[in-house]
Amino acid sequence: MVPSDSARGSVLDAPTLVLNRSWIPIHVTIVRRAIGMLFRGTALVVDPLSLTVMDFATWLRDPTDSTRRSIRTTSRWVAVPEVVQLCDYDRVPSFEAPFTRSSLLRRDDHRCQYCGVRPPQSQLTVDHVVPRSRGGRTNWENCVVACIRCNARKGDRPPSTAGLRLQRSPRAPRWAPHLQVRPAEWPGSWSQFLGSRRVSGAATGTR
Q: For residues 176, 34, 30 and 10, what is the CA-based torsion angle, rounded to 10 degrees?
């Protein structure tokens, strides 16, 4: 069955992981741009199961796995390129996660670090574990995402005094901000290149 225009557009806008020539993740693009890279010969498709690489012509002839998302060409269905490898680029971007509200939300997976709920983003606040009035700093190790209710309950006190307990110790994230996709949204095929960060990193902030 041919997908609707909206479904086709959704697939073409899905994320594709980009590896450098040394198989190191350096970027995330979208499927439609990845296909353009394949067509121009600047990248190869990486099969997530066998880890073999294919050029554009081979990718078009490759049998479609029914368990994977596919797109329709003029003559057949082909699997969506979830991972591609650049043919010539072998450098690694030297990005560090900036300490911002949006980065903090990503590190804590948009969840309150006291009660674990995941309300709308407008209902989440940035809380200083050690209050600033008590010398607490504004950094990765002392700030967490908290819902309005827990933040109000904690007030200007340490968590233990307010009867609250952190679900995990805050720390600087190790994920690369240039990936621009939350770990919870990573396709399973990326785990071979990004380790267990999709499972544990999103919850622990140890990416």
A: -150
